[in-house]
Design brief:
Blueprint (H helix, E strand, L loop, with lengths): L15 H5 L4 E7 L3 H12 L4 E4 L13 E3 H9 L3 H7 L1 E3 L1 E6 L2 E7 L11 E3 L2 H13 L5 E4 L3 E8 L2 E8 L2 E12 L6 H5 L4 E5 L3 E8 L8 E5 L8 E6 L4 E9 L4 H4 L2 H12 L6 E8 L2 E5 L3 E2 L2 E3 L5 E2 L7 H20 L6 H28 L4 H14 L47 E4 L2 E4 L8 E6 L7 E4 L2 E8 L3 E2 L4 H5 L7 E4 L5 E5 L4 H11 L3
Parallel strand pairs: 1-2, 1-11, 2-8, 5-14, 11-20, 24-26
Antiparallel strand pairs: 3-7, 4-7, 5-6, 9-10, 10-11, 12-18, 13-16, 13-17, 14-15, 15-16, 18-21, 19-20, 22-23, 22-27, 24-28, 25-26, 28-29
Helix pairs in contact: 2-5, 2-9, 3-4, 9-10
Length: about 525
């Protein structure tokens, strides 16, 4: 078998505040060094905001934990300079198959259209993901201060700042921050200290995760079984990861004893029943989990913001946990930058909670529906589930109802207060509040991708043969101009297809690569009004 992952240990270093005894105020402090917190620090740095990240541990996640990362987070990590090693190491996939007993019910393709830079999904153990994020953070010299073995023990909003207290091997010390972003997970100490709680449902069902090292001929696909012959009356999920590690989830039911189920003498027979007596394998990591579908009432408390599992929790069906948290980060960082630079009012920060609550509710809805389908709680629910699976084997209409977990996709902010509504009809999916679709382009004599040219600041994408200046400043905010037809060549006509790009068509694109507004003609007054709206003014 392959050598096990060598977990790195990050050095604890005494901070200058502790050495000097003087309290220092930082632009931003991030609580939590998991995927969400590390990405938050990187996104703040990308917007020129120095950040201190504190974590009570000093290594990466133990066990593979989160596994599936979707196209949208990969696009965000690419903008932050760290997607390449993830995609190189990870297992790329886009096909899922649903089985019932021994039969294939149906299969689906998560990225059926061509010409996208990033894949639909990669599977990668969370410890690798965090390792790459830490390495990228370390490269942001002067912008990111990683403080390991530093535990938050106190926090409160003050007038114009946040006061914090942290505990380290050298004792406690105080910090201050203009803003704090809590990314400290489902058991968030920050949330508890601020007396903020969840609303939603906690599910009694238990599931066993087994990360198995083996050489097997399963394809790089998502396989989900209802009532398989090797695990009757329950469900099983299979995913391929890097290093010949396979993630296998077994549904156990609400009455299972977690301590007993985790014992190798109970796990190994389940695996042999599934894989065959002759299959050689080793257990890398085993865990039993329950899950919840719940969220906070607001993701903002004064100058403290909540992101990822500290703000919302979903079931693992559909890979909506970490993927959603990364999109929280993407929504918040640019708004903090505009408010800090006094280019936007504080009210813009309220739109973070507005938009991401909307996304959380959609994810909770999909997650709860998947849970109800996979683990029906009544005879009627089970009868419905079984009838759907019966029909799905033959009839196309029933297949979308066969819910083994709707895989993570970005939530359009269709009702966001930052959107400007269309004034004329458009075709296609790129309506205001939607994340931008990628497309291959040629720019400055080289081939590239649209998403590599937008993001970080506001962009005006316009379809015109008339040369335009490189940027346009409106209300003190600079917008980059990308002219399709002069500066940008639409080499496969995908831009025109995906953006309904007729001559004159113009899009205002936010720093997080979401559409804020669009028009059939380039009109500076309309653009200025939409930009004011998109920045909370």
């Amino acid at each position: 078998m392959l050598q096990a992952y060598d977990y790195p240990e990050f050095d604890y270093v005494q901070s200058e505040e502790q050495k000097s005894g003087r309290v220092r105020r930082h632009p931003a402090i991030v609580i939590g060094g998991g995927p969400i917190g590390l990405t938050m620090a990187l996104d703040l740095a990308a917007h020129g905001i120095p950040a201190v990240l504190i974590d009570d541990n000093n290594t990466v996640s133990v066990g593979s934990r989160a596994v599936c990362y979707a196209k949208r987070p990969l696009e965000i990590w690419d903008r932050l300079g760290c997607a390449a090693p993830m995609e190189e190491k990870g297992v790329i996939w886009k096909v899922g198959k649903v089985f019932r007993d021994r039969k294939t019910v149906f299969e689906f393709d998560l990225l059926p259209e061509p010409d996208h830079k990033h894949p639909a999904f990669i599977n990668l153990q969370q410890y690798y993901l965090e390792q790459y994020l830490v390495e990228r953070c370390r490269a942001q010299e002067g912008l990111i201060d990683l403080r390991w073995k530093t535990k938050l023990v106190g926090i409160r909003n003050e007038d114009g700042y946040v006061a914090l207290e942290a505990e380290t091997p050298d004792g406690k010390y105080r910090l201050e921050a203009d803003y704090v972003i809590a990314c400290d997970g489902a058991s968030s100490d920050t949330r508890r200290m601020m007396d903020m709680d969840f609303t939603g449902t906690f599910f009694a069902d238990r599931f066993l995760i087994a990360d198995v090292v083996m050489k097997a001929d399963f394809p790089a696909e998502r396989w989900f079984w209802f009532n398989p012959p090797f695990h009757r009356n329950q469900s099983v999920l299979l995913h391929m990861q890097a290093d010949n590690v396979w993630r296998i989830d077994f549904q156990l039911g609400a009455d299972a004893d977690p301590d007993e189920e985790k014992k190798p003498e109970n796990v190994i027979p389940r695996l042999k029943a599934m894989l065959g007596e002759d299959q050689e394998f080793e257990l890398e990591w085993v865990s039993v989990y329950q899950f919840a579908c719940r969220r906070m009432q607001s993701f903002r408390n004064g100058r403290v913001f909540f992101a990822g599992d500290s703000a919302h929790q979903v079931s693992p069906f559909g890979a909506r946990g970490a993927n959603t948290g990364i999109q929280d980060v993407d929504n918040l960082a640019w708004k903090l930058q505009l408010v800090r630079s006094k280019q936007a009012p504080d009210a813009l920060l309220d739109s973070y909670s507005e938009e991401r609550l909307f996304a959380a509710d959609e994810n909770l809805l999909f997650s709860t529906r998947a849970t109800d389908f996979i683990t029906p709680k009544s005879k009627v629910s089970r009868a419905f589930r079984d009838a759907v699976l019966d029909l799905a084997e033959t009839y196309e209409f029933a297949r979308p109802l066969s819910n083994s977990g709707r895989l993570s996709t970005p939530t359009p902010y269709v009702e966001s207060s930052l959107n400007s509504p269309d004034e004329t009809p458009f075709e296609g999916a790129m309506r205001p509040g939607t994340n931008c679709a990628d497309a291959p382009i040629r720019i400055k004599g080289r081939t590239g991708w649209l998403l590599d040219e937008i993001g970080g600041g506001f962009t005006l994408l316009t379809f015109t043969d008339t040369p335009l200046p490189a940027s346009l400043e409106l209300g003190g905010i600079a917008c980059r101009l990308l002219a399709v037809g002069t500066e940008v060549e639409d080499i496969k006509s995908r831009l025109a297809e995906r953006y309904d790009g007729r001559p004159g068509t113009t899009y205002l694109i936010r720093p997080d690569q979401y559409v804020a507004a669009r028009w059939r003609q380039f009109d500076e007054a309309s653009i200025a009004a939409a930009l004011a709206r998109a920045t909370g003014r």
